[in-house]
Amino acid sequence: MKIRFWGVRGSFVAAGAEFVRYGGNTACVELTEGEKRIILDLGSGAIPLGKVLLAQGAEKKKLTILLSHTHIDHIQGFPFFAPVFHPKAQIDIYGPRGAGKKVDHVLDESLNPDYSPLFSLKNLSAKLEFHSLGEEPFQIHDFEVTAASLPHGRIESYGFRVEGKSGTVAYMTDVGYPGGVPVQAAIDLAKEADLLIHDTTFGPEDWRGHEKWGHASWEHALAVAERAGSKKLALFHHAPDRTDDEVDKFVALARNAAPKGLAVIGAMEGEAGVVEI
Predict the structure, then answer these.
(1) Which of 27, 75, 169, 212 is the most exposed place for a label (fewest CB within 10 A)?
(2) How many Å apart are CA 143 and CA 40, to the nearest integer?
(3) Number of Cβ within a 10 Å radius of residue 9
(4) How far apart are CA 30 and CA 99, in angstroms?
(5) What is the rounded CA–CA span in Å between residue 117 and residue 103?
(6) What is the pLDDT of residues 9-23, one digit of tens each?
(7) What element of type H or E holds 64?
(8) What is the CATH number of domain 2-272?
(9) End-to-end CA distance of the chain, in Å?
C-alpha cells in the first residue's frame, strides 16, 4: 500500500518559505494499493490531487472519499476538486453528520451563492453518491474499512482503519482526548497498524490551556501508538503557524520519547513524504 500526503495542515493553508518542506495545504491523504484508491478528506490538498487524477484518467474508475468531518479545512478543496466537473466521473463520499445534517446537505450548503459561484451540488457534472458513516466495518474495493466516532468538540469527527492486502493504515485527524487520555475507540482503530496518522496540532505544553479545542499533542499520539502496538506514527494536522523547523523539533522530541520499535515521521506533502507498507 502506498500512502501519499497531499495536505498535512490544519485550520487554514500555511503560505511562505518556512512552510515549503512539509507543505502548506490542509488535510488530504491518498491511499493506493495496485489499481485501488481511497482518498481521506478534501482539504486544499485535494486540489492538486484532483488535477493528477484527471491526468491519469482516474475519472474512468469510481473514486471513493472518506470525510472525517465537515469542518472547512477538511472540505475546502471540494469545490476545486477537478473530478467533480467531469461528466464520466463517479464519486462515492462517506461522511458523518455535521451539526445534525447529512454530509450531502453540508457540502451543498458550502456551495451556496454566498460562498461559491457553483450555487449547488446540482451544478457539478460528476455522479455523486453520499453515504452516512456508521461504526460497522464495510468494504471499499478490496479494502476493509472501520470507522469510529472520536471526540472533537461539538461535532462528530471520525477516525478510520483501512485494511488492505499489504497492510493497515489508521487515520485520526482532529481528535482531542478528555483529560489527555486516549479513548479506547482510537486504540482499537490503531491496533497493530502499519501506519498511524494522528493529529499532533499541539506540543504537550501547548495543549494545556487548549484542552477543549478538539486536538491532540504528539504525546497523545505516542500514547495511542504505544497502547495499540502500531509500527509507525506520522505526526499530522500540523498547526498552520508551525514552521518546518518547528515540525522538525516535534518529530525529534517524539522520536526520543517513542517506545522501542515505533518509528516516528512528520507527515510531508509530495513524493518525499510517500510511505509504503
Answers:
(1) 212
(2) 13
(3) 28
(4) 26
(5) 20
(6) 999 999 999 999 999
(7) strand 63-66
(8) 3.60.15.10
(9) 5
Q: How many CB atoms lie within 10 A of CB 257?
A: 14
- A 10 A CB-CB count for 217 gives 25
CA 177 to chain CA mean position, Å: 18
Distance CA(105)–CA(27), nearest Å, equals 21
d(CA 109, CA 104): 9
**Euclidean distance between CA atoms 242 and 200, whole angstroms:** 11
Say if CB 232 and CB 196 are below 8 A apart: yes
Residue type, 58: A
Residue type, 122: K
DSSP 8-state code for residue 67: -
Going by the DSSP 8-state scheme, the letter that residue 114 receives in this structure is T
The domains of the chain are located at 2-272
% of the chain exceeding 70 in pLDDT:
99
Quote the CA–CA distance of 34 and 79 in Å, as a whole number: 28
Q: What angle do CA 164, 64, 174 make, to 5 degrees?
A: 80
What's the pLDDT score for residue 99? 63
- The mean per-residue pLDDT over the stretch 181-191 comes to 97
Provide the grid cell at 214: 478538539
User: CA-to-CA distance for 192 and 8, rounded, in angstroms?
Assistant: 23
